[in-house]
């Protein structure tokens, strides 16, 4: 499974972020003054516009997988667990679209609102965690997490990893690695992006531009207020 040239994705999915809680927004002075800035501006944006890229691209990503005879896992999440198998903390890592082919071939497509946010080294590091993180014993898991510079007080609670994806899991990391990643090496993984239009020379692009995507998300949110 090699890399692919720029392709224009035709999204049929709902171009909307995950539904936020909108109670009280209609009477908020900041919202009334500038709804767009209130919803997506600042450090605490009320709406995750980036989710809209993923939602919009999802149907087309599935079409690509079907056409190429690949298995597609969406929203693959690596999560930390305690001694009882309970999930602790948030996602340790998430992959948007993971394409799995014959002979262990892998392609990972990362959804980004801004093409400038796509950093190959950063995306490669995400995949490496799924491939290289130890599943046991707890001492090895904790040593690995300490190398990620996590708080030692938090790390002491962690004894393993589990993996989920849309429609699948949770499964222990070791089982996920054995089923999907056992014949893969990081250097052979194809990593690409999917972003709003216009067309670029690399990756996949949506029919909608960044502005159109943001406007559509805001319109849908406003309709709920």
Query: In which order are the strands of the major sheet placed?
Result: 1-8-7-4-3-2-5-6
Order of helices and strands: EHHHEEEHHHEEHEEH
Structural class: alpha/beta
Number of DSSP strand runs: 8
- How many H/I helical runs? 8
**Uncertain ranges:** 1-8, 10-17
Give the DSSP E fraction (strand runs of 2 or more residues). 25-35%
> What does the largest sheet look like?
8 strands, mixed
Q: How large, in whole angstroms, is the Cα Rg?
A: 19 Å
- Tally of discrete structural domains: 1
Q: What is the average of the pLDDT values?
A: 84
- Helix % is 25-40%
How many angstroms does the end-to-end distance come to? 45 Å
The shape is globular
List the SSEs and their pairings.
Blueprint: E1 7-9, H1 29-33, H2 35-40, H3 50-67, E2 71-81, E3 87-100, E4 106-111, H4 120-132, H5 138-147, H6 152-155, E5 160-165, E6 168-172, H7 173-181, E7 190-197, E8 204-209, H8 210-224
Parallel strand pairs: 1-8, 4-7, 7-8
Antiparallel strand pairs: 2-3, 2-5, 3-4, 5-6
């Amino acid at each position: 499974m090699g890399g692919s040239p720029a392709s224009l994705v035709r999204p049929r999915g709902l171009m909307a972020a995950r539904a936020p809680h909108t109670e009280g927004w209609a009477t908020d002075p900041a919202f009334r003054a500038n709804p767009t800035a209130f919803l997506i501006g600042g450090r605490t944006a009320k709406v995750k516009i980036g989710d809209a890229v993923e939602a919009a691209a999802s149907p087309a990503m599935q079409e690509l997988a079907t056409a190429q005879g690949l298995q597609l896992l969406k929203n693959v999440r690596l999560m930390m667990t305690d001694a009882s198998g309970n999930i602790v903390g948030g996602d340790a890592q998430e992959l948007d679209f993971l394409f799995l082919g014959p002979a262990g071939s892998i392609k990972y497509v990362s959804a980004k609102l801004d093409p400038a946010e796509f950093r190959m080294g950063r995306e490669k590091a995400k995949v490496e965690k799924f491939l290289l993180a130890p599943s046991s014993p707890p001492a090895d898991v904790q040593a690995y997490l300490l190398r990620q510079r996590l708080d030692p007080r938090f790390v002491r609670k962690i004894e393993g990893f589990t993996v989920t994806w849309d429609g699948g899991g949770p499964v222990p990391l070791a089982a996920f690695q054995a089923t999907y990643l056992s014949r893969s090496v990081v250097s052979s993984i194809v990593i690409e992006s999917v972003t709003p239009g216009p067309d670029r020379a690399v990756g996949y692009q949506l029919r909608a531009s960044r502005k159109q995507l943001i406007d559509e998300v805001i319109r849908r949110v406003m309709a709920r207020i």
